[in-house]
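hi! just following up on the protien thing from before. the input was this:
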Amino acid sequence: MKKDIQNKLVRQLGLFDSTMVMMGIVIGSGIFLTTGIMAKSIPSAPLILLAWIVGGLLTFTGALTYAELGAAMPEAGGQYVYLKEAYGPLAGFLFGWILFLVYMTGGIAGLALAFSEYTGYLFSPLSTHNILLSFDINLFHKTLTYSLSAGQLTGVGIITFLSLCNFLGVGFGKRIQNFVTVIKIGTICAIIILGFALGKSTVEDFSLNPGGMNLSQLIIGFGVALVAVSWAFDGWNNVNFVAGEIKKPEKNLPKALFLGTLGVTLLYVLINYIYLCALPIPEMTGVVRIAEKATASMFGNSTGIVISLAVIVSTFGSLNGSIMTGPRVYYAMAKDRLFFKQISKVHPKFHTPGAAILLQALWASLLTILGSFEQIFTFAMFAAIAFWVAAAASVFTLRKKYPMMKRPYKTWGYPFIPGLFILASTGILLNTLIEKTVESAAGIVLVLLGIPVYYYWRRKAFASKRIENDEEKGDRRF
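and the predicted 3d structure came back as:
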């Protein structure tokens, strides 16, 4: 019995822990980096604020939908489990495949590079601009230039450190998450309060269309901006991955999704209002370090270091949460014999899927070295939104397929709330496909490449099971 307990994940996360995991993952670098990028697509203060509000409402509809799934199936793996139960093991595997290949590991790599970007502001030798190695590669009659920066190596270092911390136990990982998330929420609240109370506000043009863009340009631009907003809200559903380690998941998981989504949305809308009061649209357009520039405008240049420290802490917490949750999906896949056997093992002392954590760290580090922030951003988000839609649709499928399944929480506003989430997410997905065709097509190809890989693992699983059955029959004969 003791050995059986040692080989299982243990429920150690309460409501506060789960909420901090959710908010800590979501509040990463996006809120400090994306508004200036959004201004390139929609140079309109009201539309930028509207995009953040719409993003929050969209996330809330998704949270209401996922709350039903998580409460009904509180197992490690979250979305992998829902897709598998609704559409079969292939659908679940393709989610896990893209999660490992691009979505989770790419998101971790993107956060690591953002962490390095701001660390480099304080310590220039660690900057992404400090190029250590550069050379040309001739491929299909085209010359590609590869550069390795100190910032990329810094990103690899932080991924390795946090992976080892989470390897040592959920309790250790959650304490880091709680502490860092409380600090980052407090920092954002301080910026908002000081911005309203003491900030030097510019006279911003809050007219709807100051640039005179036509309707189609506004619609397309708004759609592109929503992709950036989706990046800033990305990770809201990752808390479902650790449902197998949440205490009383039928109650605490829905509550964590509700509280976390509402809290993040409120913080995001308010801090963006501060940005827009601090800087005219032309001054923020294309600016990556928007938080730094906005606070410098309102409070003076001395705030640059403070904001850089805030972003470092924020990305640190988001990285920790992502590194904590992702391996639970690979663990669930491996338990179904659709991934490496070693990944299904739980460390007997630390009660963590240790091999899964280390494998994720290895692949995310490789992406950090090979990819750029924008490439990782687009690949990860296109794949993420596609699987959001599929998982949300599974609420309908599972209600029909398993009408007697125990559902401690049922989605409020069903079927309209899940339908709204699916419809809006599909619109963002199509807009991404139109505006970022090459990157989106690459994401689709990566998903399709998972199909032969699935059949390889399935064939291997059948062979392994047959051997085990033969051995069991042999033992009975003796």
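The first strand starts at residue 131 and ends at 139.
Residues 106 and 376 are 5 Å apart (CA to CA).
cheers
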